[in-house]
Design brief:
Elements lengths: L7 H9 L5 E6 L6 H14 L4 E5 L7 H6 L14 H11 L2 H4 L2 E7 L4 E9 L5 E5 L19 E5 L3 H14 L4 H22 L5 E3 L2
Parallel strand pairs: 1-5, 1-6, 2-5, 6-7
Antiparallel strand pairs: 3-4
Helix pairs in contact: 1-2, 6-7
Length: about 210
C-alpha cells in the first residue's frame, strides 16, 4: 500500500523487478498535476539508480491548421484533437524494446503551440517509462487499447474546484485577462476534465492532492 508520494518511486522499482521495460500511466484531468508528479518521479528514480524517461501524450496534438479545418480549434485538448491512433502505436512500440529498440518520439513545444516530430529518442535501455496525459485510462476506442500496455497506473484527482482554479491561473500566466481566462477554462478545459473523470477506468493508485 502506497501512503505517500515519496513512496511511489521505490514501489515502482520493486514492481518492475527484472523487467526490461515497465510502463507507468500517470493520468487525470487537465490541471491535476500530472507533469509535476512525472518529473518528481523521474528525479526520485534517478536517485535510486534507475534509468527512466517521461513520455508526454502532448506530442500527439493535432496541428492547429488541422483543428481549424475540422472546426475543433476551440476544443484543443479534447480527446478528438489528438492523433490517438498514433499515440497507441507509440506505446505499443515502447512496450517492446527487444523488437523495436530505440524509439523516436514527438514533443509538444508549448511556447510555439506545436508538436515537434522526432524531437527525442527513448533508448531501449531505459527501463521505466512514465507516460503522462489526460486520456491514458479512457475506456473508449482507440484509447482503450492502451490498457493492455500499462504495468502500473496512477490517477490524480484533486477535485474540480481545485482544478478549475489551477486552469484559470494557467491561462492568466499565459497573459489572458481574468474574464478571458475563466472563459477558456470553463468553456474547454473543465468539459475535458469532466470527461476524464467520467470515462476513465480505475487506476492502481488514486491520488487526491
Amino acid at each position: 500500500m502506497i501512503a505517500k508520494i515519496e513512496d511511489i518511486a521505490p514501489a515502482l522499482v520493486d514492481r518492475a523487478k527484472q523487467a526490461s521495460r515497465f510502463l507507468v500511466a500517470i493520468t487525470g484531468p487537465p490541471g491535476a498535476g500530472k507533469s509535476t508528479l512525472a518529473e518528481q518521479l523521474l528525479e526520485s528514480l534517478a536517485n535510486l539508480g534507475e534509468q527512466a524517461a517521461v513520455i508526454p501524450m502532448d506530442g500527439y496534438h493535432l496541428d492547429n491548421a488541422i483543428l481549424e479545418d475540422r472546426g475543433l480549434l476551440p476544443r484543443k485538448g479534447a480527446p478528438q484533437t489528438f492523433d490517438a491512433g498514433g499515440f497507441v502505436s507509440l506505446i505499443e512500440r515502447l512496450a517492446d524494446p527487444a523488437q523495436y529498440g530505440d524509439v523516436v518520439i514527438p514533443v509538444f513545444d508549448r511556447s510555439r503551440d506545436i508538436a515537434i516530430a522526432g524531437a527525442e529518442v527513448v533508448s531501449a535501455d531505459t527501463r521505466i517509462l512514465l507516460c503522462e496525459g489526460n486520456y491514458l485510462l479512457l475506456g473508449q476506442a482507440p484509447w482503450a487499447a492502451l490498457q493492455a500496455h500499462w504495468d502500473y497506473s496512477i490517477f490524480i484527482n484533486p477535485g474540480l474546484d481545485v482544478i478549475e482554479q489551477r486552469l484559470i491561473d494557467r491561462w492568466l500566466d499565459h497573459g489572458l485577462e481574468a474574464d478571458q481566462a475563466k472563459i477558456r477554462a470553463l468553456g474547454n478545459d473543465i468539459p475535458n476534465a469532466r470527461h476524464v473523470l467520467d470515462h476513465s477506468r480505475p487506476a492502481d493508485l488514486q491520488i487526491q492532492d
